[in-house]
Structures are given as structure tokens and as C-alpha cells.
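task queued by scheduler; priority normal; single chain, no ligands, no partner chains; default sampling; output format set to C-alpha cells
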Amino acid sequence: MDAPLKSIKDLLPDLAGASRRVAELILEQPDLAGRSSITSLAAAAETSPATLTRLAAALGYEGFPALRAAIATDHGRDLQAGWEADIGTMITPTDPPGRVLDVLAGTHAQALRAAVAAIDLDVAGRLADLIVDAGRIAIFGEWGDAIPAEELQIRLLRIGRPAWFHRGHQEAVVAARLLGPGDVALAISRSGEHRDGVRFLNQAAEAGATAALITGATGSTMARQAELVIDTGIRDGPNWTGYFAGRATDTLAAGLIFVLVAQRTPDSLGMPIHTVDQEHEGDQERS
């Protein structure tokens, strides 16, 4: 016997009136159908329990209770498959918060150990030297990769480095075209296969800038475009739990670059931060 939800969907074009309303309700709310009594579900569909009994029989079930059990099982499998594809298998929908925290912390710790073993400090030092001397630093990141990329730009700007953060196709194209010899184009991409990132590094290299990449995939397309590649040791995971663990390695690598640059320009540290409001207040006082 086919899965009940598929059978109902296949039967739907042949149904009319109350039977069709019941079928549509089940397809729209399988969780409701899998836990409701025949009376309550019939009321929700504005029909009688007999309609549900006839629908169950048409689908080959011995009454509505058997159909309801099959729907609950079928929907449960769909939910589990969706959860595992998105979140992964290390955490389940019923895990208590403590278990969730332990898994997330544990995967982060493993990822950080992998990053420490993988990061080439000589390459990181060369990139820091180039950033110190660069006339312009363009940093690219998309989606989750944008988080450490944008933070690095902010940190570099804070210590006086001429850094800009870019995301999206148009920004990447324009940013790369503005670069030249002595400039640095740095992308952060776990997978190393982002189309806009590939174009960003390629155009930057053609313009004479140094193309650099922080990634977990040293054999990727973006890595082949880059002159300097910092390996974080964690590839793009198949689900969110793995991807979130790798976020720690991206942040670690970006943080390392920031501190190495700061070490080379210690006089830039401790600079006062003036907000726009503070500058505006100062102008008012002087006027």
C-alpha cells in the first residue's frame, strides 16, 4: 500500500464535495489529521464522520483509526527526514536543552582543534604583512561566511586599515575592479565554490591585487583562484550542525589575521572611537 498522504494526493482529482474537503484538510494539516478523533476532524472539515469512514475505505483502510495511524507514521517520517537533512542526526527534536548545548559545544571544540592543526602560520603572516601595506583591502563573504568577514573588516578599520566589506554579485564585481597592485582581496568561503566569490578573486588577481581566501576546501575553485589560502580544516558540512561548528574555525582564522595585523601596527591600537553623534555635538559646541 502506498503512503497515505501520497494516496490521498493521487485520489484528490476524483473527489468532490465533502470528501474533497476532508482530503484537502488532511494534506494541508497532516499533523492535525494524525492526532484528531474522527468526530473532531469531521467537524473541522464541516462534514460528518461517515465521510471520513468512506474516504478511509476508498484508500484501502479498515476504518478511519487505521488511516489516522498511517497518516501519523507517514508524517512523522517526513518530519524526521526534514530534521535530519537540515539540523543533522547529532541532535534530535526531543533532546533537552542541556544535550543540545553539549553537542554544539563539543562540535565547536573539535572544529577548533582541526583548525589549529590546519592553519599555516607562515601564510597567515604573509597575508598580515600584505594587509599592513595595502592601499585598499576588499573583503567578501556571503550568507554565514559574511559574519566573520564583516567582523574582520570592522576590526581592521578600527585600527586604521582601509578595509571594505562586500557581499552580493554587484558589490563583488565593483570592489574587485577598484583594486590594483599592492591591494588585497580577501574572501571567506567554507565551500570555496561561491560563484560571486570566484569572480571576485579572479577579477582582483587580474587587476594586480593579491587574492587571498579563508576556506575549509583547499581544492575548491576559489582556492585555485587565490594566491594565498588559509585552510581552516573544516569543510562545508551537509547540515546545519556541521556548518555551525565550522563557523568557529572561520572566526578563529579571521581573528588570527586581525591580531597579526595589529601586532605589526601597535601604534594603531587604543585610538579613540568618535561616533557621528559625538562629532555633531562637538560641531555644535564650537559654533
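post-processing summary
- The chain has a mean pLDDT of 86.
- Residues 240-264 form the longest helix (25 residues).
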